[in-house]
Amino acid sequence: MPSVTGQPTAIKRAHRGGAGLPSTRKRDGAMTELVEAVDEVLLGIGDGVTRVQRKQYVAYQRLRNFACVCPPQHTKLLVYLKADPKEVDLVPGFTRDVTGLGHHGTGDLEVQLRTERDLDRARDVFRASYAAA
């Protein structure tokens, strides 16, 4: 595209490298490992699970989305599930009812994962969300 002076101007395009979760800041090793572990658990939860990369999150679906994983924050990874928050024992700092609150992804139950131990605690809720989809 020529400029006013007749010289071509460069067109710059931003490119986000790599598959998986989009991120605007570099993730540390522990968060990267946690993202990979969550991906493995959600893909292996049952038959016919597919991963769909969206702009703001990664969706895991059977017929419909049952889990959405947002890009990791500094200290935690947020997963939104289709499980009914009224049927889950909510634990402050771990699970939260986000019914009526704006967020990326599908589902009304937010699970906050900080370590792989949290992932082990969340497996039953992941299964309940898979069953609900």
TrEMBL record:
Q: Where is this region: Disordered?
A: 1-27
Task: Name all DUF5655 domain ranges.
Answer: 26-130
Top-level taxon of the source organism: Bacteria
Task: Return the Pfam families for the record.
Answer: DUF5655
Record protein name field: DUF5655 domain-containing protein
